[in-house]
Amino acid sequence: MNASAAQQPDFDRRNLDWYIDKFVQALVFLGGISAILFIIGIFVFITVEGFDFLMGRFDFVEFFTSPWWEPTDEDEPTYGILALIAGTASVTGLAMLVAIPFSLGAAIFIGEFATGKTREFLKVLVELLAAIPSVVWGFIGLSIMNPLIIELFDVPVGLNVLNAGIILGLMAAPIMTSIAEDALKAVPDRYREAAEALGATRWQVVYKVVLPAAKNGLLGAVLLGVGRGFGETMAVLMATGHAINIPTSIFDSVRALTATIAAELGETAQGSDHYGALFTIGIFLFLITFLINLMADLIVRGVRKQ
Amino acid sequence: MRKSLIALLGASLFSASLSLSAANRVLIQNKGSDTLVNVAQAWAEAYKKVNPSVAVAVSGGGSGTGIAAMINGTVDIANASRSMKKREIQRAKAHGINPKEHVVGYDALAVFINQKNPIDSLSLDQLAQIFGRGGKFTKWSDLGVKVPGCPSDEIVVVSRQNNSGTYAYFKKAVLKPAAKKGLIAKGTYRQGTRDMHGSKDVVDLVEKTPCAIGYSGLAYATDHVKMVCVAQETGGPCVKPSVKTASDKSYPIARPLFMYTNGEPKGAIKAYMDWILSDAGQCILLKKGYAPVREVHCD
Known about the structure:
Distance between the termini of chain B: 39 Å
Shape of chain B: globular
Number of domains of chain A: 2
CATH architecture of the largest domain in chain B: 3-Layer(aba) Sandwich
Helix content of chain B: 25-40%
CATH class of the largest domain in chain A: Mainly Alpha
CATH architecture of the largest domain in chain A: Orthogonal Bundle
Radius of gyration of chain B: 21 Å
Shape of chain A: globular
Largest sheet of chain B: 9 strands, mixed
Order of helices and strands of chain B: HEHEHEHEEHEEHEEHEEEEHEHH
CATH class of the largest domain in chain B: Alpha Beta
Distance between the termini of chain A: 41 Å
CATH superfamily of the largest domain in chain A: MetI-like
Order of helices and strands of chain A: HHHEEHHHHHHHHHH
Oligomer: heterodimer
Strand content of chain B: 15-25%
CATH topology of the largest domain in chain A: MetI-like fold
Strand content of chain A: under 5%
CATH superfamily of the largest domain in chain B: Periplasmic binding protein-like II
CATH topology of the largest domain in chain B: D-Maltodextrin-Binding Protein, domain 2
């Protein structure tokens, strides 16, 4: 509004521009809070669907300590997710062992050593890698890794913790690289300059100064990778061998929590105990990934504030 | 669903009197058992010629999928290789659906092993101890054989996902009786079975894996896997799975195949069900490797 309008208090400002302005403001506000609405909406939805089971058949001790997931047994259905948790945890754990060296190395190289075009090129490449659909990774696990593992290790079946762990590690690495690189970038240049002024070599600067200063951000990157591992479905469904099992070696087949929901949900009667149990797994997964992400976010934020 | 079907039927009858157009075709939704899906597709295909005004949409997914869809009211005919459980019937009734069971054929449940495996016959008890929880056979050497190409000696147990009718039938016919006899700890599968999502996947994995053993409908047998001759008692005479041994019930693990409709079938669905049970329908079933419900003469 211009100055003359401001001097005339009874001037009606509600012209078309005013309405558009208000409308766009409301729209942007909605967009801004939509993430919160969606999260609450999703949580309410899965809780409502799982409610009957949670209030009825659900047995906390059985659910978390029994390795027997037999929701369709006619006489005595059991709903134990211990073996499924073990499956998810073993695959995610191995994935982190694969992803942490890869992503840290890549982040340190991109952030501290590479310069100019190399650096830009690598950054684009990492982002590209992050955009590969998970079903493609699953396919690689199924058709390339599977025969390779059988051949190399002389095991009967190549769909196992090792296969899924490597696949998931490669999937999580690009995202972890991006976040780790951000964390390294957040370390002020004066730290590096001070270290170099004291006669430190490049590696000494990275190892003694930059990494300790960025450790929270790096931890955040790892946690986000773990969150990704817990939530990943398609690749894990295809590469784990789909066997409910508490693994004793990396060559054992397992089944993940997510894969169980994906494989069984479409095939249960709505409102049945089995259906509710799957939603209860969903609630559990939601809470776990929410907590992991929240923790990662708080840690990363803590770094930025320094 | 039923209302809309009746409306559709009424509309199609009305327009049929004026002119028969493709847009007014009656659509029958048919879903379920993976064991039955091939023959269900063949029926749907052949029925096009019998009655061009009816289209049958067939999909698989497992008996549990079909039964769940029937309970949820999204299909007209559910295929199942096991009968509906009490709980499922109660649930269906609560949804206002009254499932009616029709036996449309019989199937021998074949046990498959890799071609390299020297085993010829297994008894029901032995099968239970391979597949069941707490069963004592976990290595091929426990059964007194050495399988070439299987250095780990481990028995790779291939099973099906838990909504499969084949999974449920094998459990009921092999594992539950063995548990009653005290041969295995509980009438259910052992931990760590590879749960395949279709009968064909079971056969494929057994074909590729020398250490493996799996089960599926006889119709999924190929020349690349070996079928075990199954004996009622250990050491007793064994019977090879075939259409004939499934029909005369001499094969110990043969099972009826079901189709479920909501109440007594009417109209187009009744006509379709009647045709399936006619000689023409049963001959298609026979050709696909299943046993017909009665003796039929096919050319």
